[in-house]
Amino acid sequence: MTLLKRVQKLITFLKINCLLEVERPFILLARYSSIFLFCLIYTFLSKIIWQKHIQLNGHDINFPLFIITGAAMMRFISFPLNMFHETLLSLKHAGMAAWIHVTSTSMWELFLAKAIWGFFLALTEFVMFIVCSTFLMKIAIGFLNISFLIALAFAFISYSGISMMILGVGLFLRKEASLSALISQISITFGGVFFPVALLPGLLKTLSVFIPMTHVLKIVRSAGISSEIASSETYLILSLITIVTWTIGFVLINSGFVYAKENGYLERQL
Amino acid sequence: MNAIEIKNLTKIFSAPAFKNQPKVTALKNVTLNIEQGTIFTLVGPNGAGKTTLIRILAGLTSLTKGEVKINQLPLNKKTCRKIGLFTAEIKGYWDALTGYENLIFFCALQNLVGNQAKKRISEIVDLFEMSLYILKPVYTYSSGMKHKLLLARSLVHNPDILFLDEPINALDPMAARNFHQLIRNRLNQELGKTIFLSTHQLEEAQEISDTVGFLFQGELIWQKKANLFRSKQSNLLNEYLETAGQV
User: Which of A9, A95, A173 sits opposite B91 (nearest CB)?
Assistant: First the structure.
């Protein structure tokens, strides 16, 4: 198959993703309006805490910037984290999960289309955050900062690796693992979203090292404080986490599909 | 020439992970040959293994033991592309999209894009006379229309062999008759497709098939020419009940 045809095929899948999303506009609307709501609540709270600063990595970071970056990233990771099992669930819902495997298309092509679509949605939501934070909360975040964009890419890729692992486990356990909600909660609680990781007790502080969110936020907040680039150690750890999650996820998904095919339950609910 | 060759096919389902359940043998040493361009119908009670056999032959489920050949080549992802699968049990389309958008998606899955896809869809829409509703959302379709859409899905890549798993379930007698005619006259006789059908409708099996096979508790008990039943030399219902009773 030529590259042009492959691109045409990918565009067809993207169009289908878009059409299916347009059919449930209220979900998207709810997501965007929740950002608006978040900003309004924060506007109210900020009257009390506006001048507060937090010590982070040897820098002073003002509380509004700390909280808005955390909240924005919390929302941002939800797309990659749910991407893989949502793709399969959506195919299952339409009764096509097993059938796809006997067509000329690999699941990975559909995952790619979903990833591009998911990244686009996550990015639009992020832009919504920036617009709301600028106009409602008077916090200007320069999202065109290169560190910021790198952090977004890292967040997306590392959490999509975790999403692969979740789907792989789900395929073996024959039910939707509900792991994404758990991972999301762990990331929020121990990744330094709403309070600095330094405040965590010893063991949990160690746990936070293995959570991509911790490092993504370091990059984002470093960029936010003084447009500086986070230490190379942060990028290294994040890269390692990404490689590990992608490798395990890839193996789990492939063997999970073989297992599901052997036992003939791909059409049924995970 | 045989379109499908099955030799000593056995399928054992293992227990779910971390659950102490016994293994289930769904098919035992099934051996069967189906000639090209014919209609083979598999009958048998619920749980006999009909759907499992079709799913294995269509490549959806892997086999445990035995050999399957499609057009004399071993069953694999490549030979699976010679196969179309229709199963009324599973939805198989996006309700929110139009029939046309669904077909565009199915075509892309089979590597048909752009003008190639449009041309193929137009052929299929003409073949199944779907032009009046193809641009409407699928949730507005009747059961008969949805059946045609599923059949269209299974044919977008112009397969040689078509597997139909209980195709007329949920259809009224008129729609069922139309569906039969479509299978027999258009797909089998005009286009020369080999058709493998599973059903509980004995009349259907008798009317449209060339050969009928009886599957019971995972074993193929017999296979006979359907014209024996049509010419009243034998009665399919009696044969069915007798065999089920004896086994």
Answer: A95
